[in-house]
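User: Structure please.
Assistant: Input sequence and predicted structure:
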Amino acid sequence: TRPYREARNASGRAEIAAGEASEPVVGPFADLMVWSIKRPAARIGGDQVVALTRSLRNAVMSRVPNPLPGQISGHTVPGRTHVAFLALPDVGHEHADGHILGLALAIPHDMSDEDRICLLRAVILEPPLDEIRLSSGRSLAVHYGADRIGLRPSRWAGTDRRRGCEWVTVTPLMLDGHPHRGRDEASEVARSLVIAGYPEPAEVEISGTPTVTGGIWRPRKGTLPPGRPRRQLVHARVRFGESVTGPVLAGSMRYFGLGLFLPMSQRTSGPPERLESEQADPVRAEVPKLVEVQ
């Protein structure tokens, strides 16, 4: 790993020390809408994260009436945050294997009420989104809501004021630029976080492999959208100078689920507890093999 330290400000004083801020810094996303993958279903490997998020986007776009709002389609003012399509993996405990637990939409803070209502009607009410068509033609059954702790929006929000300062990537982050003389990978990760709407971190550590159990090493070959620039993929642990609320997403592929961070406070020694609805599942003991999405 390689450390990074942010520059001191003009007065020569270091930025606020971790945990001293009275209120967390609010990130660019306000809400996380979550769909659980219905069981029994074969587990889907985490390396298929982009294939799944692209399928989720296609499903949502097919249900939203024209004209498509820019903050839903992504065709909006450059630099403005829009809906992100996520696949949430099983990570952060000693038995985690990175398989995908469910899918999610990250909703921007500045999304208008009109556009938010349009999205809610499309995926929750008319009728609810309960199926994702994969690129292979196979259907993946889903239902709205979190059926296990690992899918709860609060797990990805980092709202603990004392421990919302440190975050670690669970999917690789694709840098927004290319490292060069005077700007290494750690500096580029810091820059990507600022571009995404978060404070500049006080510290960044870079790794070529995941540093959290179950973390996804790389998206599967052939799953990235065609025509998109290919840049370096890295994993990172970052510490902000103050507590930040998530979800935290950064990098040029953040809207397709790469560069997703988990609060360090959410790493545990055991698997996340099942919620009551999952505990009642009579076939939960079966552990099916990983399957192909494409």
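The two ends are 34 Å apart (CA to CA).
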